[in-house]
Amino acid sequence: MLAARSVRKLFSAGELLFSEGEPCNGLHIIARGKVRLFKTSVSGREQVLSLNVSGESVAEIPVFDGGPYPASAVALEETEIVFISRRDFNAYCLEHPEVPLKVLTVVGARLRNLVGIIEELSFTTIRQRLISLLLKLAQSEGRKTARGIEFQLPASHQELANQLGTVRELISRNLMRLQAEGLLDVDARQIVVKDVEGLNAILDTAS
Amino acid sequence: MLAARSVRKLFSAGELLFSEGEPCNGLHIIARGKVRLFKTSVSGREQVLSLNVSGESVAEIPVFDGGPYPASAVALEETEIVFISRRDFNAYCLEHPEVPLKVLTVVGARLRNLVGIIEELSFTTIRQRLISLLLKLAQSEGRKTARGIEFQLPASHQELANQLGTVRELISRNLMRLQAEGLLDVDARQIVVKDVEGLNAILDTAS
DNA sequence: CCAGCGCAGTGACCAAAGTCGCTTCCTGCT
DNA sequence: AGCAGGAAGCGACTTTGGTCACTGCGCTGG
Fold this sequence. Notes:
Two copies of one chain form a homodimer.
Chain A: E1 7-11, E2 16-18, E3 26-32, E4 34-40, E5 46-53, E6 57-58, H1 60-65, E7 72-75, E8 79-85, H2 86-95, H3 98-123, H4 126-141, E9 143-144, E10 149-152, H5 157-164, H6 168-180, E11 184-187, E12 190-193, H7 196-204
Antiparallel strand pairs in A: 1-8, 2-7, 3-6, 3-8, 4-5, 4-7, 9-10, 10-12, 11-12
Helix pairs in contact in A: 4-7, 5-6
Chain A binds a DNA duplex (30 and 30 nucleotides) through helix 6.
């Protein structure tokens, strides 16, 4: 049994699971909590690669090719990790041929995700990326009210900037601008989307 | 045997193997030739995701998760493809558990590659990306001469721009600028790298 | 020979992105 | 109450990236 060979680890919010470049010796599975995978630049900027929650695995790749971690991972809240060593997992895969196939679909999703990030970085403006993030949030966490779709920003401007590959100020500015254009209402972290159509229109406008 | 179930296809230079969004029904392996994987934006810009040559496979992902192709692929020269249907390949994987593990390392390399592209797009300027491309070319194809390391650009400015996620003019301009700074000599597609140190220095300067 | 085409060079512009320096607000702590 | 630190607002500015419109070159197929 695989569980028998696994180790449980506990991380508190803000704690690093591992850093880019470190050698990797096993698979991490999130039992509870939330993890952010990201790259750091020399000048201190960050680019988020993915956010992962309970049930998902992190850093599948280095487990299989034996290379170092391609990115760093940090716990965003109290997080419990199940760790399985490379050797154990490899052996397990050979015994259960359907497992690596399953892993491949997980990795596939990850790959699609990365391609999506590349597409956004190389084809869209920050304004568009921010809008599409806001629409995603509105969809998943928004409540419909008389004024529009309301929700809270899930993180600081700095954090959002990291996800979009930019800096704090541009989040500020673009939110303002959208408010000035009457598409949003912003009050601290409280967002009210007033004109979904208008936002979608901006996305469609292939500038 | 797997080969028995495979189909050979021939593509001439410029021909599309498949397009982004199409459903995928099998694995493509390059027997001979060269293939470019890329994304296209609504406004017609392209972003190259990878270049693949003989022996490599293309579009492993959709084979496993059943989704559509995440990008388009085009043959850059006369190319011969061995095509294996999804069903056959899946069956083969279950019979030979070491195969999906092998595929995982291939996919891993691809993932690392994509992460590298994201890193470049989000942390570096076009100037830096161009320099690092030139250095790579100098390393792999350059001949040392009295004047420096000489080589030919492998493609048109337009094509290089696609790889770096930008437009033709910026390639032109940046090459000029590097020449004006005395780091390069450019004569049509002939490049002479005169100062490798200087180029590396620019890369290290975390602006 | 030359018309047409694809590629490259180039200047004038414009818009987006990023930087700096500061202010303001809020929150928690002493 | 007063202070320290983090988060956000904001204006002024610079740099980078991108667009447009054009020119010029060199090759190829009538």
